[in-house]
Request: fold
Amino acid sequence: MLKITDLQKTFNAGTINEKIALSGFDLNIADGDFVTVIGGNGAGKSTLLNAIAGVWKPDFGTIEIDGVDVTNMPEHKRAKFLGRVFQDPMKGTAPDMEIAENLSIASKRGLKRSFRWGCSRKDRESYRELLSQLELGLENRLSTKVGLLSGGQRQAVTLLMATLRKPKILLLDEHTAALDPKTAAKVLEITNKLVCENHLTTLMITHNMHDAIAYGNRLIMMHEGRVVVDVSGEEKKKLTIEHLLGLFEEASGKKFSDDKVMLSK
Reply:
């Protein structure tokens, strides 16, 4: 579903602030894989997601989504392949519009528009049923402005919006990092349910080692713009944080020292 070949990206090339973000990055992800991505600050995690989303073009290399080369495709055109949830709960929704209106916009992504009511009675019933699955009481608040929701509620709505029209790839960019632990756990529970039930090919960036191990069927660890650890299947099920750190040290020749990630153990 996703094939990345020799991806390279350098920011501020030729200046004192030159930063190599991706260095010959290769990755193949099968249809339905749920891949967690972890690494220290500056490892290239967000740069990778932005490259897939088309926020910026790589300096070299190719990106293919379901057999389509999207490397030079502009961001707005490749959006039809993708669903994305950001770290900031304020992104990904229209805060001054109702929950039902936000879901209506998401449901029509990639479709031709026409002059008719944007949210019919049938649509509202469908959204009510979808929201009830979140178990957050939002099914009775369809007319509530999204900007009035809590961070966790908003991320849950954003997840629904991102998956309403099944994307080829779902990108989750530390989407629970700004939430308190209890709310983050609930959003991750909802995430896992939506990903598994809809068989969504997913990349989830996280700074939490426990979550990286607990969720998904594959884990990759990045360092200096490349993959240094790639664990899946039965090996991942048996993985511990100590084993993961050992694999990182063996592959990179360095001890893992990112405070944010280490504190999340």
The chain has a mean pLDDT of 89.
